Amino acid sequence: MVVQLSAARGSSKAAGGASVKPRPQPRSRLNRGSSPRRPAAMAVYRCSLCRRTFFTGRRHLYSTAHRRRLQEALGRLEEEVAAARAALDGAAVRRYDPAEHERRVWCLCCGRGVRRDGRSGALALPHAGLLQHLAGAEHRRETVRFWRENRADAALRERFVVPAEEYERFAAALRKAVGAHEEREEENIRQMAARIREAERRQRDTVRAALEPPAETERCVGPPGCSSAVGSARDTSGCAELPGPSVMQAGPDLSWMESGQALTFIGHQETEGKGNVHTGAKPPWLTDEEEEDGSKQQIGPSYEEFLKQMEKQKLKKLPAERVGANFDHTSQTGDSWLPSFGRVWNHGRRWQSRHQFRAESGGKKKKR
């Protein structure tokens, strides 16, 4: 620069003394700024999957830690989705159990819990709640957003979405299964009602046969083979057995014996006291207690015995080593149960009452 300026000055002087200004030279790129260049500040990024804040911006989405957490979370959700997809082929219903069918599945794309099973009255519909959520339009939108924000593999997105057509077929099959189950339950209820009505009818017939008065027609009182010894008229009316217990007869009925027949009458065997069903007595289940016994018997302990037992239960709760635990309250004690040297005193010392007692009783010991 100095050489050029000097040469220029010399040439100018040679030209006649005219002054020429030097041409400015361009600055180098390295010397343009007086201060060194500062790097641009990175944006703060909050990752909802890792639950941490990173200062490297969206560069974190391509890190190894983020990819590992994303793969683990998608693997857990894929297991639940695969189990729900397996239930699409066969719709089933079960009895509702809160401990089993109140479980929720965390949807990673929507960020909320979803009930896995559905419910219809007292019936549980396995995987119906999760399938309904996976087939919804909101879940599809949230899945697209989640894949875009976390840079997930686009080929895996369709695994976490259920087509609406498949869910409609599943819902139709589920409605048929619920209807079939309700028909089976109604059929079981009708069969149980029929069995109950039949049992009540038999019970009414038994009670009616036991309470109705005996028929006026003559009945056979002889042995079971009496129809062979008597005439044909006797066969139709006398040997017919009526339902229910028989009625005790007051005496032997000899009207059935006809003249000209060589039959020997043995007689009725009457037992003293109570009869039984073979002699025509009333069955015990139709006999009142007042009829059997004139005085009404008391069942169970009396009220006084109950109070004594309650007192014993209270005493069992008290400590066994207490004073007077073994004292017999039923024993009779006289007036001389106090010790000979003791009495109740209101003033003075204890030994003074002892001497006073001995002086009054005249049994004071003589000094040796």
Keywords:
368 residues, two-stranded antiparallel sheet, 6% strand, disordered N terminus
Description:
The protein contains ten helices and seven strands. By secondary structure, the chain is mostly helical. It has a domain at 78-209. The strands form three sheets. The chain has a three-stranded antiparallel sheet with strand order 3-7-6. The chain has a two-stranded antiparallel ribbon with strand order 1-2. The longest helix is centred in the middle third of the chain and has 48 residues, at 164-211. Residues 1-8, 10-18 and 224-242 have low confidence and may be disordered. Residues 357-368 have a biased composition (Basic and acidic residues).
Kindly summarize this structure in a few lines.
This protein is mainly alpha-helical and 368 residues long.
Gap between N and C termini:
152 Å
Strand order of the largest sheet: 3-7-6
Strand content: 5-15%
| Class inferred from helices and paired strands | mainly alpha
Proportion of helical residues = 25-40%
User: What does the main sheet amount to?
Assistant: 3 strands, antiparallel
Topology order in helix (H) and strand (E) letters: HEEHEHEEEEHHHHHHH
Q: List unreliable stretches of 5+ residues.
A: 1-8, 10-18, 224-242
Number of helices: 10
What is the number of E strands?
A: 7
| Nearest-integer average pLDDT | 74
| Rg, nearest Å | 56 Å
| Rough outline | flat
